[in-house]
Amino acid sequence: MNHQPPTTNPDRCFSPDPAQRKLARELHENVKDLPIVSPHGHVDPRLFADPEATWGSPADLLIIPDHYVFRMLYSQGISLESLGVPTRDGSAVETDHRQIWQTFAESFYLFRGTPTGIWLTAELVEVFGVKKKLTGDTAQEIYDQIESKLTTPDFRPRALFDKFNIEVMATTDAATDPLTSHQQILNSDWGIHPSTGKPRIRPTFRPDAVVNLNAAGWRESIDALSAISGIAVDSYCSLIAALENRRAFFKQMGATATDHGALTAYTEELGGEEADAMFAKALRSHATEEDATRFTGHLLIEMARMSIEDGLVMQLHVGSCRNHNRSIFERFGPDKGCDIPVTSEFTRSLQPLLNKYGNDPRLTLVLFTLDETAYSRELAPLAGHYPALRLGPPWWFHDSFNGMRRYFDQAMETAGLCNTAGFNDDTRAFPSIPARHDLWRRASADWIAGLLVRGLIDEDDAQEMVFDCTTRLAREAYRL
Amino acid sequence: MNHQPPTTNPDRCFSPDPAQRKLARELHENVKDLPIVSPHGHVDPRLFADPEATWGSPADLLIIPDHYVFRMLYSQGISLESLGVPTRDGSAVETDHRQIWQTFAESFYLFRGTPTGIWLTAELVEVFGVKKKLTGDTAQEIYDQIESKLTTPDFRPRALFDKFNIEVMATTDAATDPLTSHQQILNSDWGIHPSTGKPRIRPTFRPDAVVNLNAAGWRESIDALSAISGIAVDSYCSLIAALENRRAFFKQMGATATDHGALTAYTEELGGEEADAMFAKALRSHATEEDATRFTGHLLIEMARMSIEDGLVMQLHVGSCRNHNRSIFERFGPDKGCDIPVTSEFTRSLQPLLNKYGNDPRLTLVLFTLDETAYSRELAPLAGHYPALRLGPPWWFHDSFNGMRRYFDQAMETAGLCNTAGFNDDTRAFPSIPARHDLWRRASADWIAGLLVRGLIDEDDAQEMVFDCTTRLAREAYRL
Amino acid sequence: MNHQPPTTNPDRCFSPDPAQRKLARELHENVKDLPIVSPHGHVDPRLFADPEATWGSPADLLIIPDHYVFRMLYSQGISLESLGVPTRDGSAVETDHRQIWQTFAESFYLFRGTPTGIWLTAELVEVFGVKKKLTGDTAQEIYDQIESKLTTPDFRPRALFDKFNIEVMATTDAATDPLTSHQQILNSDWGIHPSTGKPRIRPTFRPDAVVNLNAAGWRESIDALSAISGIAVDSYCSLIAALENRRAFFKQMGATATDHGALTAYTEELGGEEADAMFAKALRSHATEEDATRFTGHLLIEMARMSIEDGLVMQLHVGSCRNHNRSIFERFGPDKGCDIPVTSEFTRSLQPLLNKYGNDPRLTLVLFTLDETAYSRELAPLAGHYPALRLGPPWWFHDSFNGMRRYFDQAMETAGLCNTAGFNDDTRAFPSIPARHDLWRRASADWIAGLLVRGLIDEDDAQEMVFDCTTRLAREAYRL
Q: From the CA of A41, how many Å to the nearest CA of chain B?
């Protein structure tokens, strides 16, 4: 019996075959210490605006804000209240963080074989130097150890950012966000990476709240857009003007990309009058579900046009049925592990956008799916043809070792590696970033070693491909 | 050339990689002799009610009732008549069971690499001690060998049940079934398992025939329900009362679960008046297809409520387009290998049921799919969130070595092993039960060995996981 | 670092596991030199009608006509004009074939790990004896080498056909094609294969242009059908008569199969009057989209009837959304790498056809999909039941090493190998034929070796299965 924490295994993820494993290890060796390029994620920029910012308790850091963690505990009957997840109405939840940690540790076995389990173990071992396996018995001792580290300057956000060797990290920010934290970071002596001379932290323009007519609080978001842009958004034309205004501001603040979340990839070009009428209807709170779908589909095409003009890379994430569990949503709000994927269609849905702008090399549109059946059927054929398209990495539920294997298996032969966009960690859990990138680098190295050991590529190819996967493709796709 | 029957290979199914194979063998060794827990299947309980019951001929046992077997022969142009499959109208079919066996043996090569081939070979070798490969040349000799065994007391159903080390086996029974055989078994000195003190054979409540308004013979089934429950089922309310009455009886007879088959997972809560009107319409034979879909969808929600109240575990099997081949259905009836899967949707379909009862830990709802695309897209995310949900094992066409590999690959990282329900053999072919469970145990051991050899779990995890897969999860999910 | 071209690796594609690799190598050894049976493809028969025919330049041979090649280059921003792809209006494109080749060579790295890359490398190495890796630096030297070979008699089409050891190759030909080239080939001293005594090159009857009411140029195709059949096609009845007439001619010219391409697998039997009315409406250019779908669906059933009568094997390819990129289609025409798959449904769509003719052993219907999700869910269950059905090999985007692995994994356990149709190369790139068949033979050998090394089949099974995959199943399915 081996009681060592598993992530101390230097060959983890690699094929057990000795020949493939040796090649994978060599390929990984070449890239494992490269800087992290993180072009899409959800870390809170405030953590880096204040040089004295701290993480709070181990539960604040690793449990309370991470829906990957508490969804699994909840699925086995552990209440979100007992995990300290804050309620919307402020009603009481567990406040003893040692107790929350104990509950988590006693159920840590639920994460066996899951990516969350692998990331968490890597964080404990590699970030916090934990030597024991997390169980109910070791919970408090490990809590002590993490808590004591978190009080030291070496574990403040900026220090970890540097320790993690992150070259650049993008956040995701509402169109109406004043980007105050980004401004503070840029103004600080830490904001610019000394080697690249470029911002360490970049915003990403995410206009869903003003673009999706049926988004919760849409009217308030439009008002906020008017206020921050200084453009009275009272018509379709002024909406476009305000969006262009905000994109220009985001770009000036270091953004290289926009991000769009929609239930489907539906696009449709509306005439100016129709778009105007639909927007006016929405302002009067009369927009139908169908109006919302069509208006969003039209604005996606407009966003592609703007991307061609201002050079911001466009990301599209589709297929998540948000807040599926109504009572959890009502009590705790969004992002509580209740978003469930649905079937997604791209071929017909994106045709209007692609027919208009897909041949334009100035556009880069990165596509993400939660429906893996689209990899081989739609996304790889589309990405392997349209100059404007890149296939994004495995997203969310599929950002796992097997999810990556399926992606390499199903997408690469048809799309070609160069039509993909490298890796995104897409996380709000900052300390998991190194573990996520390392998992991708290991999965990439193992995939490439598999091609090599089967004689399908040669060693020169393999060396270039592993660099492509690690940093080159992400830098290129996101213009970083 | 190796002419030994393949199932004599003690390492069958395991990865060829020596390191993984060694681990898989060790893990399998620990669980291969554990008792069989069979919480869902279709074996006829009459076989165990009469201690003198026998199987008939080798063709009666292995060919004539098994649609897994004759579908493959039929697909290659061998008529069902020539295989002795009885016709609805009693028109003549082959009655020479030696000839049926000969036909089967000459085409046994069709099963190469199929799960049916693997199960049949295992049955021949391990249950009947056959030493030669089944071909046209060896057919009669092997027939003799099986036939002579079948006449001995050691091969009677109860004897095989004990020899197979089955701890508990659930049957599937219509809501209107009087459960006479189950009563006889319980009354016998064999009915209670000596180690567990619990029934060896348990019924499962399957009300499809009375719940699906468009089921063939629905009106007759309703009358039978009235008769057996003593409740005149003439309204929606009396239907509910009769169903509750029957569930109570099934529970008293040892049932721990219900089972529901539907074309889709659609659920919708109807108002009481609407449900009543729909049921009245159906009684007048005026129910439309849409009524049937909505009424079934409503009753699924009602069944979840009853499960919360009476503690019976709820199973839902969806996605089979039954009796696709009309002429075969008309001539031979249902369950003749002509059921073909269709696309299945769960995320939106189950939302009404899950929003009502999915957070209630008293409910266990086990989901089965014939559409594997739902594993990673919908079922694993749902099971990894809702406390009431468990993902059932690979079903029917997917209950194969590769089907299991895809299931482990696609479902486990997101659902987590503990949100699954272990294994079901789901078979009417009693002698295949050990082979099916052994295949699952081997596939599980190989999957877990793969995680271990890649450093993704440790050895303690591996040991617990292989026990989980073998018996613990099934016992827990089915409250056995 | 190994700079040898990868295809010189005699073990390419095989599992790295030494035990499986050894078995795969042995199985492959037994079949690698078997003649090529190519029952479905798109090579131009004119190349073989004239014994002096040549290929033109290396760019004419390998780049300009091959949409697999230029789609990938186009996806990375290389214009089709710069690759010499001819425009519809004759506007200028690159005519310097050395420059086209240089452009291609400089971007050849894009094909790393893709099937096109594997085929091209095999062609360069094994057909043209190229010893260096294709890059910008080696481009002109390799161009010289290929160009000089192409001028020799040994590299003329008929000589390569013989050198490739092709036993029989089917082309795909419009219903209105006079089959002049086929006639010339049959009349020549080369037309009949000396070993088999049968035609080397066979036509395939493809009536899409007259069957799909909304096909571009449908009216002109109907006129051409009238002209060539001598039957005035002015009614549904005369259409049927003309199609039967042409099928008889194709059969007389050596055809053993028909081929049907449709967006979906929808079938529906229309009454004679309805079909007649719909056809009349189409002649008046009034057919709707729905008419076209229903009429095609009806004619597919009629084609099955004709196949039963004349013995031609029926092929059905569905799920490609043709000419997705409108501007490329308008400038360059069809088959320019812009066909993108969509979701395909078979279970319900084919039920009318299968209920009418699926039980008839005189019919062989070979099904192809671009939606791999249908393998395990619909196609394998259908093929494993209906006597008339065979599952065709992985098609188009899935005709790759991993595509084949997924096919073996997902289809074979349920369909059974004997319900599949062996391999099709489906190519218009003649010199890629040996590489494509070899990839299939290697993938088959590796799959079978995997079953063997896991103890799921025995060595006798393995030997027969690898022959089945290589030639027997294709010969049987296509009646060659």
A: 20
Cα first-last separation, chain A: 46
The 10s digit of each residue's pLDDT in A28-81 is 999 999 999 999 999 999 999 999 999 999 999 999 999 999 999 999 999 999
* H or E element that contains B37: strand B36-38
Which CATH code is given to the segment(s) A6-53+157-477? 3.20.20.140
Of A354, A359, A461, the CB nearest to C112: A461
**What CATH superfamily classification does B6-53+156-477 receive?**
Metal-dependent hydrolases (3.20.20.140)
Position C1 scores a pLDDT of 41
Å between B8 CA and nearest CA of chain C:
9
Q: Would you tell me the crossing angle of helices B236-252 and B289-310 to the nearest 10 degrees?
A: 40
In CATH terms, are A6-53+157-477 and A55-155 the same topology? no
A410 vs C contacts (CB less than 8 Å): 402, 406
Mean pLDDT of chain B: 96
| Fold of the C54-155 domain | uronate isomerase, domain 2, chain A (1.10.2020)
CATH number of this structure's domain A55-155? 1.10.2020.10
- pTM for the predicted model, two decimal places: 0.98
Nearest chain C residue (CA) to A358: C325
pLDDT tens across B124-177, in order? Answer: 999 999 999 999 999 999 999 999 999 999 999 999 999 999 999 999 999 999
Q: What is the mean pLDDT of residues B104-120?
A: 98
Supply the pLDDT for residue C444.
Answer: 98
Contact C136, C102 (CB under 8 A): yes
| Strands A320-321 and A313-318, sheet pairing | unpaired
The ipTM is 0.97
Question: Which positions in chain B touch A2 (Cβ < 8 Å)?
Answer: 458-459
Measured between beta carbons, which residues in chain A are less than 8 angstroms from residue B378? Answer: 340-342
Report helix, strand or coil for C60: helix
d(CA C406, CA C374): 12
Maximum Cα–Cα distance across chain A: 71
pLDDT, averaged across chain C: 96
Torsion angle of C-alpha atoms A127, A128, A133, A134, degrees rounded to 10 = -110
Residues of chain C with pLDDT under 70: 1-8
Nearest to B328 by CA among B32, B94, B85, B95: B85
Q: Which string of DSSP letters, residue by residue, matches B343-359?
A: ----TTTTHHHHHHHTT
Closest CB to A384 among C16, C75, C373? C75
Asked if C82 and C101 touch (Cβ cutoff 8 Å), the reply is no
> Where in chain B are the domains?
6-53+156-477, 54-155
Choose the closest CB to A455 out of C9, C115, C370: C9
Angle of helix B289-310 relative to helix B272-283, nearest 10 degrees, comes to: 120
CB-based contact C258:C207 (threshold 8 Å): yes
- Contact residues, chain A, for C6 at CB < 8 Å: 455-458, 461
Q: Which long-range contacts (CB under 8 A, 24 or more apart) does C119-125 make?
A: C119/C429, C119/C432, C119/C435, C119/C436, C119/C439, C120/C62, C120/C69, C120/C432, C121/C5, C121/C6, C121/C7, C122/C7, C122/C432, C122/C434, C122/C435, C122/C438, C123/C62, C123/C431, C123/C432, C123/C435, C124/C5, C125/C5, C125/C7, C125/C8
Tell me which DSSP letter residue B269 carries: P
What percent of chain A is modeled with pLDDT above 90?
Answer: 97
Q: CB atoms < 10 A from the CB of B65, how many?
A: 19
- CATH number, domain C6-52+156-477: 3.20.20.140
Please choose, from the candidates C219, C205, C122, C209, the residue with its C-alpha nearest in 3D space to the C-alpha of residue C171: C205
